[in-house]
Design goal:
about 190 residues; alpha+beta; about 30% helix; binds adenosine-2'-monophosphate
Length: about 190
C-alpha cells in the first residue's frame, strides 16, 4: 500500500508580508498572558483546501487536474487586514489575520480548487470558507477580546501560484514542505505587452 501524505492546498504571502507578520506576532505575544502556539512566520499561509492523508497518486492527480483548471485563473493582488478568532472571540482556539483586498479572488480560487478536487474524490468541509491566515492556536478556548483593539493591515502582494504542501507533524510543531507549485495565469499582464 502506498504511503500516505498529509497535505493541503494553500497560497503564500511574500517575504515582506512575512516580516510584517513576524512583527505582528511579537506584538501579540506581549499582549497574551495565556499559552499560544504561534505559527512561524515563514510557515504562514492561506489554506484553500485541507486534503488530509492522501496517496502520492492522489497528489499527482490533483496536480494535473488543478494545473488545467487554474490555467485561466489570473494572478491577483492580496492584502491582509484585521484580526479575528475561531470559533469566536470569547472562546477562541485560533487567532487569525483576515484577507482584505483580494478576498473575493481568494474565495473564487478556493471554489475552483474545491470543485476540481471533488471530481477526484475530495470531500470538502461543510462549513463555509472564510479566508484567513492562522497566526496562533490555543489548546483551550480563551477570551481574546484584546485583538479588537489591534489594528493590522499588511502591504499588498501578488498571488501568482497555488501550492500543494506536505504537512509533517513533529513534537516541536508541524513542518510544511511545498510538493507542487502551480502558476496562475499571467495573461492579463502579458496581453498588454504583445
Ligand atoms: P488553518 O489554515 O485554519 O490554520 C495545515 O494543517 C493547514 O491545513 C492549516 O493551515 C489548517 O488550517 C488547515 N486545516 C484545515 N482543516 C484541517 C484539519 N482538519 N486538520 C489540520 N489542519 C487543517
Amino acid at each position: 500500500m502506498s504511503e500516505k501524505i498529509r497535505s493541503f492546498v494553500a497560497v503564500d504571502t511574500s517575504v515582506s508580508v512575512r516580516g510584517e507578520l513576524a512583527r505582528l506576532v511579537k506584538d501579540l505575544e506581549v499582549k497574551t498572558e495565556f499559552s499560544v502556539k504561534w505559527v512561524k512566520p515563514e510557515q504562514m499561509h492561506i489554506t484553500l483546501a485541507f486534503l488530509g492523508e492522501v496517496t502520492s497518486e492522489f497528489v499527482q492527480n490533483a496536480e494535473s487536474r488543478l494545473k488545467q483548471s487554474i490555467a485561466g485563473f489570473p494572478e491577483f493582488s492580496c492584502q491582509l487586514a484585521g484580526l479575528g478568532a475561531f470559533p469566536s472571540v470569547n472562546r477562541a482556539r485560533v487567532i487569525w489575520a483576515g484577507v482584505g483586498t483580494g478576498a473575493d479572488r481568494v474565495i473564487a480560487l478556493q471554489r475552483e480548487v474545491v470543485q476540481t478536487l471533488m471530481r477526484i474524490g475530495f470531500v470538502p468541509e461543510r462549513r463555509p470558507f472564510s479566508p484567513h491566515l492562522t497566526l496562533g492556536r490555543m489548546r483551550v478556548p480563551v477570551n481574546v477580546q484584546f485583538i479588537n483593539s489591534v489594528s493590522f493591515v499588511s502591504s499588498e502582494w501578488r498571488v501568482s501560484e497555488l501550492i500543494i504542501y506536505q504537512s509533517e507533524l513533529h513534537p516541536s510543531g508541524p513542518v510544511y514542505t511545498p510538493l507542487v507549485r502551480l502558476q496562475l495565469s499571467t495573461a492579463e499582464f502579458s496581453s498588454g505587452k504583445l
